[in-house]
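Morning!

This is the sequence you dropped in the shared folder:
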Amino acid sequence: MLVQPLGYDHDGARRRHRRVVLVSLFVVILVLLVTVGSSLMVKEPDFKIASAKVTGISIPSRTLYMHVQLSVDNPNSIAAHLLSVEGDIMNGGEAIGDFYTYEEVVVPAHSNFTVDLGVRVDNLPMPLSDPVLVLVGKARLRVWIVGITYPFEHSVPLTYSPDKVNQPPVARIDSQPVVRRAAEAEFDGSASTDPDGLVVGWSWDFGDGYSAEGAVVQHAYREPGSYEVVLTVVDQMGAADTATATIRVLLL
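The structure's back. Tokens below.
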């Protein structure tokens, strides 16, 4: 049994308790109103793919590399959060690969922010069947408690030909015809061209069991003799061309 001290004011205690309850309820309602009101005032950021291009194709591994730049314009007075971007890479109506990033990026208030995304496609069917890659997917953003999903579709042309019929590249080798054994010799394929697009892959076979990738490479032969160097280049669709050069390696 609870024993109250003499002179305890029961009515005053009840009034104080009611005031505490009312104040607490008022604070909860105020917080809810502010939260809901702020949510209603949030403006949707503008999300888009600003650019996308093929940056390279590894010929031996049949791997395509792309650089995708995302643009987020946040008009709000609070930061937005880019939570994820994911999708498929389509060619000729078929998915040839996918891409995703779940790394959260903070977009400051009242700013336009760009995010760079590297995309890799393994086991590329070469050459591609269609002169256009299509990126289809969705991005998720959050502004305070408001979550927003942006579906997107972005086309990446692979040829600049007006009739969309791809023309293969033309491979060219620039190198010294005579080199010395064990000396680094330079092989340059940067003069290779593509009539309606870009050369994005260079693969070298030096004729001695060694190979390399890149527009300009170096190689040293271990034994004297005559070697046939083969350069294979590909354009953005994976169409290929080869060039050869004979290299004479001297003992001294």
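Headline: The chain is about 15% helix and 50% strand.

More detail when I'm at my desk.
O.
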